[in-house]
Write a structure and sequence with these properties.
Layout (H helix, E strand, L loop, with lengths): L2 H8 L11 H11 L10 E4 L4 E3 L13 E4 L2 H6 L3 E2 L13 H4 L3 H10 L2 H13 L4 H12 L3 H19 L4 H8 L4 H12 L3 H14 L8 E5 L2 E7 L6 H10 L6 E4 L2 E8 L2 E9 L7 E7 L6 H11 L6 H8 L3 H9 L11 H11 L4 H15 L34 H7 L8 H16 L10 H9 L6 H11 L11 H9 L6 H8 L6 H11 L5
Parallel strand pairs: 2-4
Antiparallel strand pairs: 1-2, 1-3, 5-6, 6-10, 7-8, 8-9, 9-10
Helix pairs in contact: 5-6, 5-8, 8-9, 8-10, 8-11, 16-17, 16-19, 16-21, 18-19, 20-21, 22-24
Length: 535
């Protein structure tokens, strides 16, 4: 049933018993059970009260005839609803749908979260997706209940609420950091969505903090000495150690620094270079990633948040993934030992491409050495954070002294295309491929980004001389968050399969792995773990 029909039904049109719709019935049962696993996966609109809630809202369950379910807060806004003041429906992990799906709507949502509408407008968003603005608006409205402007507006409102409730930033700075074009637009949007002025929203949050006896689950942010702090919630269970271990295994000197459950690096963002640090939250019952960042501009905050969520795979439906994979006796023990396993994403798609190209058919250690040398020779330098801006939750000056902080940006495609021949070593064919890819990325003839259509991206990569299925699959897995990739050409993965009593031959493993669909990327993480490697 379309969102329009659902809204009409909830408002009283005679469309039959809503519980006859199996999707509606499933969501209504989750709402009745106040099942927090569904928070962020859909939104409950209650037309009798004019509010929308998260599924786990503690309020009395409304009658089915008064309820609509929406995939986005923007759709609820378009239906004239406002956010619940009690359950804070936008203070939860995001929907896993935008990573799982590969259709136009999902790819648009990934770009909207990255702040493309604020930077380039709807025409820029549509151009990134190779559609006209009119067609894109029509598709998003039909499938998600709101067009790109409304979706971006809802995202700005959510960012503004997080900053208002968790920082002492002046309201004007919050408006700018959230992507609003004017203070008036900021004030009007916050009032419409939350039925409170920005200052009233902030005051209510302070009162709630004083009354709270436990840590709130919502994302938080603060600014101290030029450093922005964020707390980004993860959908439980969450194998934070696995992601940090993966990042540490390939950390590049100068660009990154990693340790036990912490990781820091330099990063290019739309407004300029930044230095970011990540640690895992100590609260097992409410897993999260603590982020500290020194940014060139507060406008880079929304794209940073979107990229960190992808890097740590925070929105994955871990319960569903573990339930599916544990049905296979060969994986059941690994799933039980490592619940909530994640597939690491990336912060910079171009950088990931070069890491994959250098890492083809060599060990992690050898690739790390080559990439670190490339960064040292061609990467731009950024100023290290001063000790005065560091805080107790950041790696301390003893664990992360200023003289060892990440200060080098990974080289741009332009720098590698122009100077890579003087730095890159190894087989001539591989060097030619790297330089070719760098030139294509710089010219725009090859686009590698989170919003790429997965099959199309794989085809374009495979068309480049020297790129094979392993590289194309690996890039799709980590850049576009493809959940169903099994890299049977990977020696370490096949070694892990053999240790788990599975076939190690590529063809046999591929045939057997079909039963893990649509979660073969997550099955791959279990196989790599069994091999004792971080590929």
């Amino acid at each position: 049933m379309t969102s329009t029909a659902t809204a009409r039904r909830a408002l009283g049109d005679s469309l039959g018993d809503p519980l006859d719709d199996p999707v509606f019935a499933e969501r209504y049962r989750a709402m009745q059970a106040r099942d927090a696993r569904f928070d962020g996966q859909f939104i409950t609109g209650v037309h009798s009260t004019g509010i929308y809630c998260r599924p786990s809202c503690p309020a009395v369950a409304p009658k089915p005839s008064n309820v609509s379910f929406y995939l986005t807060a923007a759709a609820a806004h378009e239906a004239g609803l406002r956010a619940c003041k009690r359950c804070l429906p936008d203070a939860v992990p995001g929907s896993p749908q935008w990573d799982l799906r590969d259709d136009l709507s999902a790819r648009a949502m990934r770009l909207i979260a990255d702040g493309v509408v604020e930077r380039e407008g709807v025409p820029g968003l549509a151009a990134r997706l190779s559609y006209t603005p009119r067609h894109l608006t029509r598709v998003l409205t039909a499938e998600l209940g709101a067009g790109p402007l409304a979706l971006a507006r809802a995202h700005r409102a959510q960012t503004a609420r997080a900053l208002l409730t968790s920082t002492a930033l002046p309201a004007a700075d919050v408006a700018f950091a959230s992507g609003f074009g004017s203070i008036r637009q900021f004030n009007d949007t916050v009032r419409e969505v939350y039925e409170r002025s920005p200052l009233e929203l902030r005051a209510a949050a302070r009162l709630r903090e004083r009354r709270a006896t436990t840590t709130d689950h919502e994302p938080g942010a603060a600014i101290d000495g030029g450093v922005v702090r964020l707390r980004l919630p993860a959908r439980a269970p969450f194998d934070a150690a696995g992601v940090f271990g993966w990042l540490a295994a390939r950390a590049l000197d100068g660009v990154e620094r990693a340790g036990d459950l912490h990781y820091a690096r330099t990063l290019r963002l739309p407004g300029g270079p930044g230095i970011v640090a990540f640690t895992a939250s100590a609260a097992a019952e409410s897993p999260a990633i603590e982020v500290e960042a020194r940014l060139a501009t507060l406008a880079d905050l929304p794209p940073l948040v979107a990229r960190v969520r992808r890097l740590f795979d925070l929105d994955a439906d871990a319960v569903a993934i573990d339930a599916a994979l544990s049905k296979d006796p060969a994986l059941a023990a690994s799933v039980a030992d490592t619940p909530g396993i994640r597939v690491p994403g990336c912060l910079d798609p171009h950088e990931l491409v070069f890491r994959a190209l250098v890492g083809q058919q060599v060990s992690v250690k050898a690739a790390r050495t080559t990439l670190a040398r490339l960064a040292a020779e061609l990467g731009e330098r950024v100023a290290p954070p001063s000790t005065s801006t560091q805080s107790p939750s950041m790696p301390s000056t003893s664990a992360w002294p200023a003289d060892k902080a990440p200060t080098t940006l990974f080289p741009s495609a332009a720098a590698i295309a122009e100077h890579g021949h003087a730095v890159l070593k190894g087989p001539a064919a591989r060097v030619r491929t790297i330089l070719d890819v760098a030139a294509r990325l710089e010219s725009g003839s090859l686009v590698v980004a989170a919003e790429c259509e997965r099959d199309e991206l794989a085809a374009e990569l495979l068309a480049v001389p020297g790129i094979g299925p392993w590289t194309a699959g690996y890039v799709a897995m980590r850049v576009t968050r493809a959940p169903d990739v099994l890299l049977t050409g990977d020696l370490a993965l096949r070694s892990g399969a053999e240790r788990m009593g599975l076939p190690s031959a590529a063809a046999e493993l591929a045939a057997l792995g079909a039963r893990w669909a649509p979660w073969r990327s997550y099955a791959s993480m279990h196989l790599w773990r069994a091999a004792g490697t971080q590929v």
